[in-house]
Amino acid sequence: AGLASWLASARYLNELECWLGSARYELELAREGSQYALTKIEKVNMKVLEATDLPKLQYLRCIVMETLRLYPATPLLVPHESSVDSVVSGFHSQGDNASRILSYGTGRPTDFIPERFEDGKSDGKMLIPFGMGRRRCPAENLGMQMVGLALGTMIQCFNWQRLGADPVDMAEGSGLTMPKVVPLEASYEPRASMIDLLPKI
Question: DSSP letters of 117-135?
Fold first, then answer.
């Protein structure tokens, strides 16, 4: 199960980029979210985004967390097993029985609202794509950093234009991971202010 989840997570990195891009366009309909995030990034510095800048970009972090809440890497988390009888949320579980958490089912409501994470108080109860407790994914911080840098750099360095005028199709596919049924199609061009810095990425 651990190997399966590791393979799923590796594959999901590519799919997450598609979900993040789609969510970004969904966010623009609500409050010009990409421009807001870009403004925050530009306030940090005028160089290419680095990992040390991420703690100052709370709204960017909120976008990543909201995307992971709605579209977790693996819908079913790694199974857990108790060696003795126990009670979980009022249900009796016999010892040596494996239990799995459906992280996809906990990602409700379905509205994409990054602001729900702005106060930092909703992190634990609303976000479990990495699991919870002592056995949560040890690479959680690394994953959040990699995704934050990828999304932040995409917003900072490029102007994006979605192809087509139809609403973004956010339908989910099936499988070990959760791909989009219809991949996002978009064109991009470097921002004029970043052209000299792009070779340094």
Answer: GTTSSSHHHH--TT--GGG
What is the pTM assigned to this prediction?
0.77
Question: What pLDDT, in 10s, does the model give residues 111-158?
Answer: 888 888 887 766 556 677 777 777 777 878 888 888 888 888 888 888
Collect contacts of 36-45 with beta carbons under 8 A, ≥24 apart.
Answer: 37/63, 37/152, 37/155, 38/155, 38/156, 41/152, 41/155, 41/156, 42/156
Q: Kindly report the average pLDDT of the chain as a whole number.
A: 75
Q: Which amino acid is at 139?
A: A
Q: How far apart are CA 56 and CA 169, in angstroms?
A: 32
Q: Is 137 within any annotated ligand binding site? A: yes
Q: Which residues, other chains included, contact 183 with Cβ-Cβ below 8 Å and sequence gap of 6+?
A: 18
49-72 pLDDT tens trace:
888 888 888 888 888 888 888 887
Domains annotated on the chain, with CATH: 2-200 (1.10.630.10)
Nearest CA-CA partner of 31 in 158, 39, 162, 184: 39
